[in-house]
Amino acid sequence: MNNTGSITVLQKYKRKQLNQRSQTLMYIASGSIFLLAITVIGTLVGDIAITTNFTQKNFLPHMAHPFGTDWLGRDMLARTLKGMSISIYIGLFASVISAVIAAVLGAAAATLGKKVDAVITWFIDLVMGIPHLLLLILISYALGRGTFGVVVAVAISHWPVLTRIIRGEILQLKEANYIKIAEKLGQSKMKIVVKHMIPHVFPQFLVGLVLLFPHAILHEAALTFLGFGLPPEQPGIGIILSESMKYLSLGMWWLALFPGMVLMTTVLLFDVVGGSLRKMIDPHSAQE
Amino acid sequence: MDIGRYSGILKYVVKSIIKIISLLIAVSILSFVLVSASPVDPVRAYIGEVGMANMSVENLAKLEAYFGINTPPIERYWNWFTGFVQGDMGSSLLYRQPVASVIHVKFMNSMVLMTTAWIFSGLLGFLFGIIAGLYRGRWIDKAIKGYSLLIASMPTFWLALVLVMIFSVWLQILPIGLSVPIGVNAAEVSILDSIKHLILPALTLSVIGIANITLHTREKMIDIMGEDYILFAKARGKSNLSIIRHHALRNILLPAITLQFASISEIFGGSVLVEQVFSYPGLGKAAVSAGLSGDAPLLLGIAVISAALVFFGNLVANLLYGIVDPRIRRGSAYE
């Protein structure tokens, strides 16, 4: 067929700018860079976030203060970034702890026999039975509120879902043919775990860990917003939003709008990074 | 005992109810431990700092005995538990009323809000999911999917604030908060007023709740649209509407209803935040106030009640799945 004009629509090949793999990698890279930037800038902002300047209070967003200033003349951009970086640190810490708990419990449930499995499954049901936010309030209340309370509450309450996933994965693996063959071939338990199981479960664990961040961050912000989390002198994102509530009826919309958008973007980016990571690692979801 | 085809389900219900009761007791123990571990002193929370300073030693001792400061925790839990079984949940320090009656009032308020949002988000999410799945890859699918993903990352309380900014501050067509107008007798509040005050909180909860069910229904719809019988129906020249009605709906309705029943926990979490923003006098707001002011009995009561709600939702979800779906009903899902 020399005549290119006769190619039908079905045959016509449209070259994509990037293939799916590079596209996914791009998402991961740009998402990570953006999140890192928020964290680093937020950490370096330092005292600007709490410096008051009464000559510049209640400013609408403009060039010098892109997010405006509040009723004490504090720069909202600096406050938002600072608050976001605090949230990200808490989120990181909390999801790592929760993921470790999930890994240990999930592995124990799947390998240590029926009784252990029943106990752990029952515990998962128990923790998931109390609405998550209420559980966070209870834990924070037990620890006397404050930063310590919110960090612990978020860290020890996010494991059930990931525990279920890991438990399921390992249970499925145990029945997989290649594992059974390895057993029949006389490979040692240790070798099976290290060579065959961990390479399969670890990526799932990693993705689960990254996908815990958004939940942890949202829950930290929510708990702080309700008054159980960070103390009011910290520029936490929940504090900023709950303070802005008093000024909403005065028409100071920028106090709530921009910090919330930054929070949402951060959560969205973590979700995108986690989802893309899953696409890279898990062949089943690669083509979605 | 065999009573025909439903004996499996009956057995399952009994088993589930026993499990739920055991879980509820565990929830109450867990909550009790957490509440007791708190450094908040109930006597101090009850009479306040000034009262503490003016209180005589004997009265203080009386109060301490009343709150069971020196009773061992297990005995205290047992007292609470036996009271709870008889419908007495102690008395709220914050409202100075029995916890049971406080919860009753707040529960009703919350139920109105949550049910409205639950139904709206379910119906709309289901509709969006069908449309998105039907037109997979087209602009409408992309719009719906994008919206759902965005909403999934949106902080509930921020959305509530944004809606307040738009509808209450900027357009000034809806009230900012509370469930009734300020300065009006409870008896004089008209239905219209109540509805007006319900719109924004319910809207926030619905918008947030839509995301999950939409994405879920979309996935199912895409799966089903790939089936052979759909292809055959299309080949026979059936319209989209008729394909949905006769082939797709049956398959996707059940998972959607199940998901909606299982999502009660999330809706409750959302309602805590929404009630806080709108000062809506429901269970969530009461829980937050109780936590902030050290009202342990109320917090405990709300935790148990909300857990019961969640377990009930899960049970209904599991039952629906089995009763309505003949494949599961005849299968061994309940064994």
TrEMBL record, chain A:
Name recorded for this polypeptide: Peptide/nickel transport system permease protein
Subcellular location: Cell membrane
Cellular component aspect of the GO annotation: plasma membrane
Membrane topology qualifier: Multi-pass membrane protein
Family: Belongs to the binding-protein-dependent transport system permease family.
TM annotation in the entry: 24-50, 86-110, 122-142, 205-230, 250-270
Keyword flag ATP-binding: no
Keyword field contains Zinc: no
InterPro entries to which the protein is assigned, alphabetical: BP-dependent_transpt_permease, MetI-like, MetI-like_sf
GO biological process, one term: transmembrane transport
PANTHER family reported for this sequence: ABC TRANSPORTER, OLIGOPEPTIDE TRANSPORT SYSTEM PERMEASE PROTEIN APPC
Lineage start: Bacteria, Bacillati, Bacillota, Negativicutes, Selenomonadales
Keywords per UniProt: Cell membrane, Membrane, Transmembrane, Transmembrane helix, Transport
Chief site of localization: membrane
Coiled coil region boundaries: none
ABC transmembrane type-1 domain span: 84-274
Highest taxon above the source species: Bacteria
UniProtKB/TrEMBL annotation, chain B:
CDD domains named in the record: TM_PBP2
Location in or out of the cell: Cell membrane
Ranges annotated as spanning the membrane: 12-35, 117-135, 156-178, 198-215, 252-278, 298-321
One GO CC term on file: plasma membrane
Membrane topology: Multi-pass membrane protein
Segments forming domain ABC transmembrane type-1: 107-321
Major localization listed first in the record, in broad terms: membrane
Any single GO BP term: transmembrane transport
Coiled coil: none
Pfam name, any one: BPD_transp_1
Keywords, in A-Z order: Cell membrane, Membrane, Transmembrane, Transmembrane helix, Transport
PANTHER family attached to this UniProt entry: ABC TRANSPORTER PERMEASE PROTEIN, DIPEPTIDE TRANSPORT SYSTEM PERMEASE PROTEIN DPPB-RELATED
UniProt family annotation: Belongs to the binding-protein-dependent transport system permease family.
Official protein name in the record: Peptide/nickel transport system permease protein
The organism of origin for this protein: Pelosinus propionicus DSM 13327
